[in-house]
């Protein structure tokens, strides 16, 4: 292993709130990149020296998710990548495109594929659509990049004017500071001529779901991804979901085939993941998690071995 990147799920795992029945001890962190050191006699697709990135769900190669496939996630169900060496089946790895660094590749498996599924595979975004993205974390910035890649207009929300300015430089078309505009569904609808957005990339969870429902258009989609602002929603305007025929779509990453499709699109566009400006050595992993907990990062937090 040469690099790893952190997701909010990894923070929940190490803090003990992800799954109280988690098997311990275990190796945390799902996303990483490395160099093949040795291969088994029947391995056909890789050889020593190849740069590779692991697939998040080792058993979800293609098709629709199943209980069995979703039980093969790295960093919780299976040991993760925060280690010096890791053994994989060759089906659980993909080659790193030449134009990407190892640190950039390490940012892709969870946040990248999740955003790709939300925008492209499940969201079906087309040129001219409008996407609302919450925040400036890893999934959010990938969603911004993929939405722009598909020709969409992007509205991005954050509580930080500095982060909003950086998102603008990445291509965000409209910016909303939700501390200044707590009812941010109103300016979002104004920006769409009163119609509402085609897709909301819902990362906040319970704390933001009501505003997402009010921001989306009739027949639009809310891609439910994160629970950063809470997991239990108490005041959800369900009549609006019904009357406006809103589709609420849970997004749990994607398959190896989805990862391959995303890598092809990234390579064609020469798209680079957004990495946090601060890097951490392996021994500084607790500090990396502290940075994520404090919400100080912009883009993916990278640990380099």
Describe the overall structure.
The chain has 305 residues and is α/β, with parallel strands linked by helices. It folds into 2 domains: 3-109 and 273-304, Medium-chain alcohol dehydrogenases, catalytic domain (Quinone Oxidoreductase, Chain A, domain 1, Alpha-Beta Complex), CATH 3.90.180.10; 123-250, NAD(P)-binding Rossmann-like Domain (Rossmann fold, 3-Layer(aba) Sandwich). The protein is built from 11 helices and 12 strands.
Q: Return the CATH class of the largest domain.
A: Alpha Beta
CATH topology of the largest domain: Quinone Oxidoreductase, Chain A, domain 1
Shape assignment: globular
pLDDT under 50 segments (min length 5)? none
Task: State the major sheet.
Answer: 6 strands, mixed
Short description:
By secondary structure, the protein is of the alpha/beta class.
Features:
2 domains, 12 strands, alpha/beta, 6-stranded mixed sheet, 305 residues, 6-stranded parallel sheet, 20% strand, Quinone Oxidoreductase, Chain A, domain 1, 11 helices, Rossmann fold
Helix-strand layout with pairing:
Layout (H helix, E strand, L loop, with lengths): L2 E3 L2 H8 L15 E5 L15 E4 L12 H4 L22 E3 L6 H5 L1 H14 L8 E5 L3 H12 L3 E6 L2 H9 L4 E4 L7 H7 L5 E6 L6 H7 E9 L13 H6 L3 E4 L5 H14 L5 E7 L3 H10 L5 E5 L1
Parallel strand pairs: 5-6, 5-8, 6-7, 8-9, 9-10, 11-12
Antiparallel strand pairs: 1-2, 1-12, 2-3, 3-4
Helix pairs in contact: 4-5, 7-8
């Amino acid at each position: 292993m040469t690099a790893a990147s952190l997701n909010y799920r990894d923070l929940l795992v190490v803090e003990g709130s992800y799954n109280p029945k988690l098997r311990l001890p275990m190796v945390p962190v799902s996303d990483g990149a490395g160099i093949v050191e040795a291969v088994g006699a029947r391995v056909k697709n890789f050889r020593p020296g190849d740069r590779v990135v692991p697939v998040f769900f080792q058993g979800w190669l293609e098709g629709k998710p199943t209980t069995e496939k979703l039980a093969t996630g790295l960093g919780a169900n299976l040991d993760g990548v925060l280690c010096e060496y890791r053994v994989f089946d060759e089906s659980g790895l993909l080659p790193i495109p030449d134009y990407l660094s190892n640190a950039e590749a390490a940012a892709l498996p969870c946040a990248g594929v999740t955003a790709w599924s939300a925008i492209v595979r499940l969201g079906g975004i087309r040129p001219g659509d409008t996407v609302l993205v919450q925040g400036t974390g890893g999934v959010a910035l990938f969603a911004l990049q993929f939405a722009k890649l598909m020709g969409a207009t992007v509205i991005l929300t954050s509580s930080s004017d500095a982060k909003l300015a950086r998102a603008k430089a990445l291509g965000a078309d409209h910016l909303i500071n939700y501390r200044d505009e707590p009812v941010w569904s109103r300016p979002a609808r104004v920006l769409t001529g009163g119609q509402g957005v085609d897709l909301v990339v819902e990362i906040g969870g319970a704390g933001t779901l009501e505003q997402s429902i009010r921001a989306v258009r009739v027949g639009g989609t809310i891609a439910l991804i994160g629970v950063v602002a809470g997991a239990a929603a108490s005041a959800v305007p369900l009549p609006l979901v019904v009357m406006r025929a809103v589709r609420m779509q849970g997004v749990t990453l994607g398959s190896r085939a989805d990862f391959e499709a995303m890598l092809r699109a990234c390579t064609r566009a020469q798209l680079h993941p957004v990495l946090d400006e601060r890097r951490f050595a392996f021994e500084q992993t607790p500090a990396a998690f502290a940075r994520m907990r404090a919400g100080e990062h912009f883009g993916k937090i990278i640990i380099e071995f």
